[in-house]
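Lecture notes, unit on protein representations.

Consider one protein chain, 386 amino acids long.
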Amino acid sequence: MNNFEFKNPTKILFGKGEIEKLSSEIPQKSKVMMLYGGGSIKRNGIYEQVTKALLGFNLIEFGGIPPNPEYEILMGALEVIKEEKVDFLLAVGGGSVIDGTKFLSAAAFFEGDNPWDLLTQGKAIKKGMPYGAVLTLPATGSEMNSGLVITRKETKEKLSTGGPALFPQFSILDPEVVKSIPQHHLANGITDAFTHVLEQYMTYPMGALLQDRFAESILQTLIEVAPVIMKDPSDYNAAANFMWSCTMALNGLINKGVPEDWTVHLMGHELTAIFGIDHARTLAILAPSHYRYNFETKKAKLAQYAERVWNVTEGNEEEKAKAGIEKTEEFFHSLDIKTKLSEYTDDYSGTAENISKRFSERNWTGLGEHQSLKPEDVEKIIEMSY
């Protein structure tokens, strides 16, 4: 294994009724801004639980953070934070709300003129306003990591950053919330978490036995609970396993000591920025083509994945590896997730070329676990995904 350091300071409160403990996790004299999305928390009872738990706090609200949190909207929240002298942020939502809150945490202490620079300067964020999270939609793992992704509608960009200052101080995970999530979003959450694991696992064998089995166990769990959750999201045990799998998929544990890829995510962010396609669905569009294009360098790990996760026992290494890709596509299809760009838009002509040009302009030239993929490779992968 490679050398590594591992520290995750986020406290997790997991299970039924844990929202009641919210007040004990926030300093008593804090001026709290609660951030949320389109208002589903007011329909599913989460809003009532949170506000009840925060009785006695100086609480202000900012709603309307959309999926793929938008820079322009977040700048409005930043104005309120400064005007009201907020000193603690509380994200109540899924990954988009939590990512937006992370950005605001960093932007509140940003000393430059343009907070967008936080996403373009390539520096780890080392100073941020304290915040916590109440997770309402398992998917991104943002509730237990320090990364964020923000969309800028004006320029059709979607960029990421992170740093040690951006871990949540705490996150409350109550699986009861899953029963109110629409099927479309459940499918997205399963797909997102599944692909997060693949980005950290589908590289090449490193002899990291425990890390591989951590990753494989998360994949196996998602495969096992997916049909149960899709059929009956009120199944608490399935919901609990689904929620914890999403968190464990991207809390920094399974990537320690092993190579990572993340090219699928970089390409997927562009499809979301251009077409507005759900993040998880862009990953399902691109992952199979990415594995086919890089088949020779990923073959050994694909075969291991097919054997251990999908129980493929017949065939040689190449045949098993191909079966692994096919099983992945079939899994996405079982969730009613389409895996071709043309199934989402008719206006895809020139997309691959445009995204390749963007990668070149940003000097994103050494991608993948071997740092060998160039913008022209990205162009070919996306064309394969049409």
